[in-house]
Amino acid sequence: MSVHPPLSALVLALAMAAPVAPAAAADYVCPAVTRVGLSDLGYASYREHGRYRGTAVDLVEELGRRTGCRFQFEWYPRGRLFAEFSANRVDIVMSSLADTARNQAGRWMPYSYTRFELVLNRRAGGGYASLADFVDQGTGRLNVTRGVYYAPAVQRQLDRLQQAGRLEYVNDYDTAFRKIQAGRADGTLAPLVIHLWHSRRLGVSDDLAHYEVPEAPRSIAGAYASRANVAPELQQAFTAAFRAMVADGTVQAIYGRYVGADLARQIFAGGTREILDSYAP
C-alpha cells in the first residue's frame, strides 16, 4: 500500500498557463490522471508539512503545464516503488538510472546527472581513494537503501562489505541517515541531492564528509514511463517535453531552486549535451 502525507491524493490540475498546446489540440489524449511514483530521495523528492516537494515534483508540475495532463503523486519505499511499476500500478517513476530490466517495463526519459558518493561520519576516518580502499582499509559500517540501482563496480564492493558483516540494507535514506546520526552506522552511499538534504535536515552537516569514488562515475538520471499504461503517443509527448526542459534550461533552474546555483552548475558541469544525446532519435 502506498503511504501518503496528511494532505494526500494531490491530484494536480496542471493545465493552467500551459506554454504549449493543450492535449485537445495535440496528437495524444491525456488520461484522467497519470500516477507518478516518488521515494525518499532528498532534494529530488521529499515530504514537508503534508506536501510533496523536490526537483522531481517541480519537473512533473512543469510536465503538466507543457502537456495539459494531470498527475497524482504516490509515495513508496524505493524497493516497493519498482515492484509497483513492474506490476503496472504506477505510470511514471522519477529520478531513476537506466538499466536493462527497467527498460523492459518503461521508456526512459533522461533529464539530469547524478553521482553516488561515499558519505561517512568523520569518526569513521576518511581520505579513501576508492570504495575498494574503504573496504580494504576501513572498519566502518555502511547502511544503503534497498531498491536503488548500484553500478556493478559498486555492487561488487557492497557484496564484499556484506560478507565482512559491515553492510546493512535499509528501506530508505531517512533510516540510513538517522542511524548515522545515532552512531548505529558509519556511512552510506548517496548522491549530492540526497545527502545534502538529509544532513541539513538533521543538522549533521559538520559531522559528515563525502567522497567521490571511481567505482561510481557520473551517470544520467531520468524518468520511466510505463510501456503498458502510457500510450505510445503520450510517451512521445512526455519524452519531447522532458527533452525540451533540458534543452531550454528549465531542469537546471529547478535544481538551482533547491541546492543553489553553484551546486546546480556543479551537477550539470560540462553542459547537457550528454543528456540530450541519450534520447533515441
UniProtKB/TrEMBL annotation:
First and last residue of the signal peptide: 1-25
InterPro entries, per the entry: Solute-binding_3/MltF_N (IPR001638)
Keyword Iron-sulfur: no
Keyword set, alphabetical order: Signal
SUPFAM superfamilies, alphabetized: Periplasmic binding protein-like II
Keyword Signal belongs to the record: yes
Source organism, top-level taxon: Bacteria
Domain Solute-binding protein family 3/N-terminal residue range list: 33-262
Pfam families found in the cross-reference section: SBP_bac_3
Name recorded for this polypeptide: Transporter substrate-binding domain-containing protein
Organism field: Rugamonas fusca
Lineage: Bacteria, Pseudomonadati, Pseudomonadota, Betaproteobacteria, Burkholderiales
